[in-house]
């Protein structure tokens, strides 16, 4: 995967948004390469007005911007970034996005912000929201409109978002509030174990396929992302899950063009691969 | 006199059951006819005895023989001197491997001997059925570079992913912690005999800098046990810990005799003795001077409390001396598994902020039951507030919220803790400053019973006001009597309060009050 080419394609095209912004930040953390840092900060600045206020950005993308603002504040100590991150946090107080994408977009930022600024009361509610979302009936990972008994009709996208939401949120939680942290990582493992039997050969197959009937590469990439991060954070047994993740990466690489079609996701996935290699 | 403990090379004797840390009068001692030191402590230990030997110990007062006991020391299989294993004892050479090798090589019933010297060492791990003896002049210094410390992972899933294996612990949660100075995991029948010194070098390293922040892992303790039984520590001095000092967890049949625990008053979180979810624990003749609570009885935070509900129970603390420190004996705040049947007697406390301090709050859970806590024959000097029971302790991120601090009755559910019976008998407290006692229960589940019998409180006329309990809306007070909120039964029998300002008892929503002077 040529991630620099993917990055430049983004910068020369629509610019970095949401996943792209996150992917850039993840790559910087994994590699220390300043080109990713500069790209992320440039993208962030383009989202601010000349007065330093956040231009209008809709949910759920605004939450990704919130995370990027926290990154920008850490890197530059520009208080404007912190102020705008606070505004994003305020915007999300009334938000009840509980779809897998909604959870993925918002909860890691909410927990990161609250943890950094000393208010961890949200942990209980966040853990409860995840519990309800995961244990809801019908199962969250079913493709919209499917019947509950059609368990094989797995929406990899939903599964992937939920796994990434859980692991990203757990990563930002203060483990000293252990009971809520434990809820998240238990849900994470529960979903991983439930999904694994649906893996065919190296990748998950799904009802949502492209016109050629090939596996949903983006959905698989999300799952790989989450597995790698789970191994890296010690939530998953490395001996058991790293080989699975590696097989999936190998198979993904054979899916031509998936990275250019999903550039942000590609950056995020490559960052996790790099982080595991760093360890 | 009574023999409390005998090993192959030492013994611990109760000289005066009616004294506190100090005997009512000193005795002259003779061992097998040979005169020893004059002894003024109620509990004392003798070292340097010979294995499998009969001894007669006699006590004299003013030349008159008062008492005598006879005992036989245990057999000893072999004695392994750590210097023969390569330990240098020069405070420069890293003696960790040598001492650890000696421990692992020691056969059942054997002794690892650490002779006089200054030993620089990293964390050491115990093995079952051995004795480790720290001779006079032996000081072990804990290394200070955290990068060299092994880590005990907090939680590891079992291979089938159905269960968990807990090792490291930090403030009531299973979290990655550096291995402690001396650690026992699943060991039994171990004796650690003094009178040598364990020095944690807390101030030399950076353990006390940003102490609450996890840097690689949480701070090591001086002595950590997990799932152990039949462990005795006798006569060891423990000082300058990076964090808590003695921290046994999920263990039973533990004895701490004539231990000395020291940390500077400004050192962070250097609790002296924190048994957590342990049972059948006795601590006799121990001296504390530390930077936090002298003794804190614990039973985990929410996760471990609710999952394992293992209380700290059947605890006896006697003939001990608690100097300074925030609390003499504290219960909680991590007590989600419950704390029961605790008897503190014949102790001397001086200069503590609080004598008995019970801390709990809404949300600790249904297993968080504190019951049958007894203080008897305790002498306090300059203890600013002898008794505090606080069921609205403002700890944890939501500690100051309405949920925790509300004085309105909240629904009783699975998160509501319970405080049962607490008794003070024959407690003599001089120099009280804030109040004789401050009891703050929960309106929806009051403290069941507070009893003070044959107690005397004398107030310091030059004292300073103090907030007695860390909860919302608790004001400073000075020389007040017993202040109680939300208690079912409050009993005072033969309680004197000399120099109290205002009412002896100020009660709000207390069921029955009995005050017989």
Class per helix and strand makeup of chain A: mainly alpha
Give helix % range of chain B: under 10%
Number of strands of chain B: 44
Oligomer: heterodimer
Runs of chain B in which pLDDT lies below 50 for 5 or more consecutive residues are none
Give a quick account of the main beta sheet of chain B: strands, pairing sense, barrel closure. Answer: 29 strands, parallel
Pick out the low-confidence regions of chain A.
Answer: 207-211
The whole-angstrom Rg of chain A is 18 Å
Helix percentage range of chain A: 55-70%
Task: Write down the overall geometry of chain B.
Answer: globular
* Envelope shape of chain A: globular
Can you walk through the features of this model?
The complex is a heterodimer of chains A (279) and B (517). Chain A is mainly alpha-helical. Helices cover 66% and strands 1% of the residues of chain A. Chain A has helices at residues 3-12, 18-31, 34-46, 61-76, 79-93, 100-116, 122-134, 156-172, 178-195, 217-232, 238-253, 258-261, 263-278; strands at residues 199-200, 203-204. Chain A has a two-stranded antiparallel ribbon with strand order 1-2. In chain A, helix 1 (3-12) runs antiparallel to helix 13, helix 2 (18-31) runs parallel beside helix 4 and helix 2 packs parallel to helix 13. Chain A is globular. Chain B is mainly β and 517 residues long. Chain B is globular. Chain B contains three helices and 44 strands. Chain A binds chain B through residues 119-121, 123-124, 175-179, 182, 189, 193, 234, 237, and chain B through 153-155, 157, 159, 161, 170-171, 173-175, 301-303, 306, 396-398, 401.
């Amino acid at each position: 995967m040529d991630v620099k080419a993917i990055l430049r394609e983004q910068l020369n095209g629509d610019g970095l948004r949401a996943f792209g912004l996150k992917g850039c930040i993840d790559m910087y953390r994994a590699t220390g390469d300043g080109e990713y840092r500069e790209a992320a900060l440039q993208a962030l600045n383009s989202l601010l007005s000349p007065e330093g206020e956040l231009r209008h950005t809709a949910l759920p993308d605004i939450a990704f911007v919130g995370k990027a603002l926290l990154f920008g504040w850490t890197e530059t100590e520009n208080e404007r970034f912190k102020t705008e991150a606070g505004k994003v946090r305020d915007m999300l107080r009334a938000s009840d996005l509980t779809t897998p994408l909604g959870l993925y977009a918002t909860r890691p930022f909410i927990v990161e912000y609250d943890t950094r600024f000393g208010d961890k009361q949200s942990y209980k509610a966040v853990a409860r929201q995840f519990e309800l979302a995961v244990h809801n009936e019908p199962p969250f990972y079913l493709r919209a409109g499917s019947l509950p008994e059609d368990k094989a009709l797995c929406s990899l996208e939903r599964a992937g978002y939920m796994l990434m939401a859980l692991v990203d949120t757990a990563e930002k939680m203060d483990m000293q509030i252990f009971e809520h942290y434990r809820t998240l990582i238990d849900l994470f493992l529960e979903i991983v174990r439930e999904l694994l039997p649906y893996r065919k050969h190296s990748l998950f197959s799904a009802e949502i396929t492209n016109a050629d009937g090939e596996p949903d590469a983006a959905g698989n990439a999300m799952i790989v992302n989450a597995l790698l991060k789970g191994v890296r954070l010690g939530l998953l047994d490395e001996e058991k899950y790293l080989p699975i993740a590696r097989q999936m990466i190998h198979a993904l690489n054979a899916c031509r063009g998936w990275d250019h079609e999903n550039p942000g996701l590609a950056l995020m996935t490559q960052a996790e691969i790099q982080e595991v290699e760093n360890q | 006199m009574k023999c409390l403990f005998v090993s192959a090379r030492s013994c611990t004797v109760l000289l005066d059951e009616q004294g506190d840390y100090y005997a009512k009068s000193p005795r002259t001692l003779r061992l097998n006819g040979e005169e020893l030191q004059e002894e003024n402590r109620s509990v004392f230990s003798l070292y340097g005895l010979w294995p499998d030997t009969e001894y007669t110990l006699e006590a004299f007062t003013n030349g008159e023989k008062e008492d005598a006991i006879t005992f036989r020391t245990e057999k000893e299989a072999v004695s392994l001197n750590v210097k023969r294993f390569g330990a240098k004892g020069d405070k420069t050479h890293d003696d960790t491997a040598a001492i650890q090798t000696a421990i692992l090589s020691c056969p059942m019933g054997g002794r690892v001997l650490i002779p006089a010297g200054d030993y620089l060492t990293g964390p050491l791990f115990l093995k079952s059925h051995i004795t480790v003896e720290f001779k006079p002049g032996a000081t072990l210094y804990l290394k200070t570079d955290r990068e060299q410390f092994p880590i005990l992972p907090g939680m590891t899933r079992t291979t089938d992913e159905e269960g968990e294996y807990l090792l490291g612990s930090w403030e009531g949660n299973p979290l990655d912690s550096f291995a402690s100075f001396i650690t026992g995991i699943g060991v039994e029948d171990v004796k650690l005999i003094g009178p040598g010194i364990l020095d944690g070098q807390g101030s030399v390293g950076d353990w006390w800098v940003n102490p609450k922040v996890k840097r690689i892992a949480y701070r090591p303790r001086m002595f950590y046990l997990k799932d152990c039984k039949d462990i005795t520590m006798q006569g060891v001095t423990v000082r300058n810990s990076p964090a808590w000092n003695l921290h046994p967890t999920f263990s039973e049949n533990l004895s701490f005799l004539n231990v000395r625990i020291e940390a500077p008053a400004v050192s962070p979180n250097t609790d002296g003795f924190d048994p957590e979810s342990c049972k059948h624990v006795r601590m006799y003749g121990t001296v504390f001077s530390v930077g936090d609570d002298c003794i804190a009885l614990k039973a985990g935070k929410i996760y471990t409390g609710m999952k394992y509900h293992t209380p700290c129970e059947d605890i006896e603390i006697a003939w001990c001396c608690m100097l300074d420190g925030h609390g003499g004996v504290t219960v909680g705040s991590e007590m989600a598994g419950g704390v029961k049947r605790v008897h503190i007697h014949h102790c001397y406390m001086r200069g503590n902020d609080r004598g008995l301090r019970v801390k709990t709050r809404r949300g600790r859970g249904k297993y968080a039951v504190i019951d049958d806590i007894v203080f008897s024959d305790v002498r306090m000097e300059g203890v600013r507030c002898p008794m505090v029971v606080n069921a609205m302790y403002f700890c944890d991120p939501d500690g100051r919220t309405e949920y925790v601090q509300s004085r309105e009755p909240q629904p009783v559910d699975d998160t509501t803790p319970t405080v049962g019976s607490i008794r003070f008998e024959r407690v003599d407290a001089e120099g009280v400053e804030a109040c004789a006692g401050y009891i703050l229960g929960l309106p929806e589940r009051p403290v069941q019973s507070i009893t003070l019998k044959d107690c005397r409180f004398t107030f310091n006329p030059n004292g300073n006001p103090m907030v007695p309990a860390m909860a919302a809306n608790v004001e400073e007070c000075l020389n007040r009597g017993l202040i109680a909120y939300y208690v079912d039964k409050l009993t005072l029998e033969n309680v004197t309060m000399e120099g109290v300002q205002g009412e002896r008892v100020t009660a709000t929503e207390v069921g029955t009050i009995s005050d017989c002077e």
